[in-house]
Amino acid sequence: MDARDRLIVALYAQLKAERETRETLEWAIRNGAVSQEVLEAIATDPVPVVTSEDIASVEKIIALDERRKTNRN
Description:
Blueprint: H1 3-30, H2 36-44, H3 52-72
């Protein structure tokens, strides 16, 4: 598995985990299991969707892909 495949798998896993988290949070809110304080904490402390590490990984993959294209020609 090359770097691009690993990135795709990692992004898929992250997306799946985020969906499961959102579904669980929605259920908890609907059932009154989350206090106002917790909701305020969630709203005021957002987690970045894309981190600087993610950007660096994508930039490396793009650079590797460009090198491969150059070497093929």
